[in-house]
What does this fold into?
Amino acid sequence: MTAPLTPVTLGTDQARTRLHELTVIDVRTPGEYASGHLPGALNIPLDQIRRALPEIRQASERGDVLVVCASGARSENACKLLSGQGIPTATLAGGTGAWAAEGHDLHQPTACSVTRATWSMDRQVRFTAGTVVLVGLALGLFVHPAFQLISAGIAGGLVFSALTNTCGMAVMLGKLPRNRPRAADLDAALAALRNR
It folds into this structure.
């Protein structure tokens, strides 16, 4: 068994100058990817990384692999998983948010593409958590005070999420049809990864 590797973090300028030689894997949901991604990035959502291990391993043998997401948290988790499998990877510090903030272009699918843009996962989580908290408070106020436990549960979940750098709500939201890759999209990304 191979020893786990330590993932590397690249700044936006480092990644930009090396972009032509990197295999870039975007681990966001297909909707987030469609809203704008690094040039040449392939979309393999975080929950599909294990399925793509053979292709990512082959790509890493041909050159460096850069894993990106919106802010860097999901790509860091993907890099840890890949490094644990002996696959050397790098993550983009600050993700696509930092990339865009530095003035670098994000590519978007053409108008004829069937890929659809949607809210970023962190925005979906904030909206869902806020809605559930408001519903819990309203039910607690107008129906029965015990419903306020719903809001307390969400608050506890947010604290746990921050402490563990995980997000169960994002995992659940990622399973919604709007956030799931179509089989053809994932197969195309894996084929492109094999051909790099």
Observations:
- The mean pLDDT is 88.
- The CA atoms of residues 27 and 45 lie 4 Å apart.
- DSSP finds nine helices and five strands in the chain.
